[in-house]
Amino acid sequence: MQIIYTIFISMLFMGCSVTSLSYDNSYISLSLDNQHLKLHAKTIERQNDNFGKLYLYRRVLQTDDNRVLIYEKAKLDDQYELNFSTTRTVSIVFETIRVNQLYANRGFYLYQLLLKDGSVLNLAVEQFLDQEIVFVYGMKTSQMRELLKELNATTNRPLVDSVLLLDRATKDIIKSRWSSQKVHFAPLITPLRLIFGR
Q1: Mind listing the pLDDT tens digit for each residue in 99-124?
Q2: SS (HEC) of the chain
Q3: Structural domain spans, the chain
Q4: Which of 10, 14, 64, 179 is most buried, judging by how many CB atoms fall within 10 Å of its CB?
């Protein structure tokens, strides 16, 4: 807790804003660089999983235009942290062939993932601290472009327009592949490393 407190105090003096991608009160909210974006989406299914030192909170959401999005928040035990970079964690959890990073700023990322079945999945990720990671996936590419525009950002990589859109009628709409094997033996998590005195 002392380490987290030190990070927040340092950020306060550096004038940095905290990045946040969250879901609450029927809204997906993004706060980044003093910008606050919201998307209305109601919960149609709730799932929670416990992998020992990692707790997964998942919501299947439906937007006002009847699109299905998945919101996932993985939170770690206080004595553990994520072992890899955000991109590597995404690659493992989604079992990707390729990860195309479109945007990265202050712990917020936009990706297009090439999955094993050849489909492309749009993904937004927030990993501000190493003890928590948040995914939102299933967006249309037009929504990704609009998000980049709202963030006043451009990408040098071409965006794929033909992407996987989630449909409740489809049996498997959950595209992340969390498992105890990955959490403990990949390993996605590791005992908390001290920032000072390494």
Answers
A1: 999 999 999 999 999 999 999 999 99
A2: CHHHHHHHHHHHHHCCCCCEEEEECCEEEEEECCEEEEEEEEEEEEEEEECCCEEEEEEEEEECCCCEEEEEEEEECCCEEECCCHHHHHHHHHCEEEEEEEEEECCEEEEEEEECCCCEEEEEEECCCCCEEEEEECCCHHHHHHHHHHCCCCCCCCCCCCCCCECCCCCCCCCCCCCHHHHHHCCCEEECCCCCCC
A3: 2-191
A4: 179
